[in-house]
Design brief:
It contains 6 helices and 4 strands, in the order αβαβααβαβα. By secondary structure, it is of the alpha+beta class. The chain has one domain: Beta Polymerase, domain 2. Helix 5 packs across helix 6 (102-131).
Length: 136
Amino acid sequence: MSDDSRLSALFAMLSSDPRMDAAFLFGSAARGELRPDSDVDVAVRWVDDETRAAAWSKPLELLGSLGLVAGRDVHLIDLEKADPELRRVILLEGQVLFDRAPIKTNALWARTAMELVDWEYLRAVQDRALFGGPLG
C-alpha cells in the first residue's frame, strides 16, 4: 500500500472518531517528505476535557491502531496542550485533515498568539538579567 493510500486511510480513521473535533497533519508527511524511517505527526483537538482524559488513559491502544493504519509510527500531539511554539507551527504549516469546530480553532490561534507574546517578553527579561542591556 502506498504512503498516500495509508495517509488517506489514517485521515478516514481520524475523521470518523467522534472524540476528536479537529486533526492536523504536520512534519515530513505534511511536506510530502516521508522517508522509510519517518513517523507520521498528527495533532488532534479533543471534543472536551473528559474525552481527552479517556483517550489518553489508553494511549498505546490509540497509537497502535493509528500506527497499523498508517503503516508506521504515529506521533500524536494534543493540540490544546502543546507548547505554544509547536502549536504555532502546527496551525501555520500543518494540513487540516478535518475541523468540525473552526471557532475553537480561531480561539486557539488567538490564545497561541497571546502566549507567544508573553514568551517574547519573558525572554527579554531573562536576557536582560543574564546579559544586561536594555529591556525591550
